[in-house]
Design goal:
Elements lengths: L13 E2 L10 H4 L3 E4 L9 E8 L10 E2 L4 E7 L1 E6 L2 E6 L3 E4 L8 E4 L6 E8 L4 E5 L4 E7 L9 E7 L12
Antiparallel strand pairs: 1-2, 2-3, 3-10, 4-11, 5-8, 5-10, 6-7, 6-9, 11-12, 12-13
C-alpha cells in the first residue's frame, strides 16, 4: 500500500491534464490548476484533489453527476456556487455538498473574488459515470481508466447531445 499520508504543503498544483484543458472561447472562461491527492495516498473508492481557480474563472462547466457525489471545502478565497437554479456566495471555511441527480443538482464554482479560489474536492469514484451539462445541453458517459497508464483518465468516454442518439439495431 502507498503511504497513506500527505501534507497539504507537499501538494504541487499543476495545469489540468490535457483532457480537461479548455481552448478557444472556453479558455477565456475556464482555468484551474490541480493537485491530485487520492491516488498518491492509495485511495480506492474516493477521489480528492486541491483545485485552484484564478479570479474571474471557473474550473468546470455547470454539471451534474448521476453516479458520483461530490463535496467541496473552500480553503482560500471567495466566489459563487451555482447549484440548480440558485446562486450562493462561498468563502474560506465553507463546506459544499453536491449530491447526485439531474439538472436540479448541477453545480459550478465561480471565482468572483480578487484572489485565487482554492478548494479541496472530494468525490466517490463510481464508474461508469454519466454527467449532464445543462448550459450546453450535453451529456458525457465515462468509464474511468483503472489501468493506471497515466495517458488518459478514461478507458471510454463519449460526449454528445441527446439528438446524437443511434438506433440500437443500426449496423447490426
Amino acid at each position: 500500500m502507498k503511504h497513506p499520508i500527505i501534507n497539504i504543503a507537499d501538494i504541487e498544483l499543476q495545469p489540468r491534464p490535457p483532457a480537461f484543458q479548455a481552448s478557444g472561447e472556453a479558455g477565456e472562461r475556464f482555468d484551474a490548476r490541480m493537485g491530485r491527492i487520492g491516488e498518491r495516498i492509495g485511495a480506492r473508492q474516493l477521489g480528492y484533489n486541491i483545485t485552484c481557480v484564478p479570479p474571474g474563472k471557473r474550473a468546470f462547466p455547470l454539471h451534474s453527476h448521476h453516479s458520483n457525489e461530490e463535496m467541496f471545502f473552500i480553503l482560500e478565497g471567495a466566489g459563487q456556487l451555482r447549484i440548480g437554479a440558485e446562486t450562493h456566495p462561498v468563502r474560506a471555511g465553507d463546506f459544499i455538498a453536491c449530491p447526485t441527480g439531474g439538472p436540479e443538482t448541477a453545480h459550478q464554482l465561480v471565482n468572483t473574488g480578487q484572489a485565487d479560489l482554492k478548494y479541496l474536492a472530494v468525490s466517490t469514484a463510481v464508474s461508469p459515470e454519466v454527467c449532464e451539462y445543462p448550459d450546453s445541453g450535453k451529456f458525457a458517459v465515462s468509464i474511468y481508466n483503472t489501468g493506471g497508464d497515466g495517458k488518459s483518465p478514461w478507458a471510454f468516454r463519449h460526449v454528445g447531445k441527446p439528438g446524437d442518439a443511434r438506433d440500437y439495431w443500426e449496423g447490426e
